[in-house]
Automatic annotation (TrEMBL):
This is ABC transporter domain-containing protein. GO terms for cellular component: ATP-binding cassette (ABC) transporter complex. SUPFAM superfamilies: MOP-like (SSF50331), P-loop containing nucleoside triphosphate hydrolases (SSF52540). It comes from Brevundimonas subvibrioides. GO terms for molecular function: ABC-type ferric iron transporter activity; ATP binding; ATP hydrolysis activity.
Amino acid sequence: MTIDPVLSVEGLGFAYGARTVLSDIDLTVDPGELVAILGPSGSGKSTLLRLIAGLERPAGGRIAIGGTTVADARSSLPAERRGLGLVFQEDALFPHLTILDNVAFGLKGLPRSERRARALDALDRLGLADRADDWPHRLSGGEQQRVAVARALAPRPALVLMDEPFSRLDSALRQQIREDVVAVLRDTGVGVVLVTHDAEEAMSSADRLVLMADGRMLQTGTPEACYHRPVSVEAGRLLGPLNVVPVEAEKEGVVTPFGRLTLDGSTTGIGDLAFRPETLMRSSDGVEARVVSRTFAGAVTRYLLSVGSVRLEMKSFGADPELVEGQTVRVALRTETAPTILSRDQP
């Protein structure tokens, strides 16, 4: 049996005056799926979320929630009638309402006892049932954001939209709050669209990524596929450092600074060999490189290497012997993680 998506976006476009902000966006979200939209500032990711939420009206295309069209170029259903849960960067709790009343606020039309029961259930899922009678100012930033998530879940929507929900939290707290909230969202089976500029947050949270830049979708796929097999240098670098080496692909293989490589799917012509810093390793059989700089970051040490005229980044983990600036070392590509060949005419 085919399960209909909770969200379907087709050919969506949006502009501010003469400036195109989004162009030809297609997106689906299935029940229980968490899709992260990742891109730099100005990529259009938050505008896309606002269009889905009903806070902006599209210039073209169609948005459907639960199979029902809620927006197109001719009409747009108001945000409050779309049945969505919304969590934004600013938690926006009402300071004059208790935590329980904040969560129950969006449950109008239900008997008081049911509103209270639903609100308490949502708070319990987020581990805050014992704070129901507290006031927002007595909660930490992480607790306030949990309340915002509880409020979004209390009406039991099929789809929750989250715009940079953890960005205001300090780094020591952010990961734990994120993991807890994502676990609750998965437990409810709700579809989720998470907008973020944090690559680690996107990859660790999502079932599927949507990579955006300049109002365009660059790539969509699993976090693993997008990270290891980018379709372009621009898409690859959204997820972290990427070594890019000009190469020439021939029928017999790809001519690289590491020798001739045989890679699946490679084509003939001039292109770029793209690979992550952790794909590069020390090897007595490798090519000679010089250490240009070294950056210690705890469990990882990053090295900038010079291989001929090419500068490459390498990551060293754990107990690997340290290198120093100016030292000569031999390096090779790990065979278990094949690099990607990107032709020059790819986006």
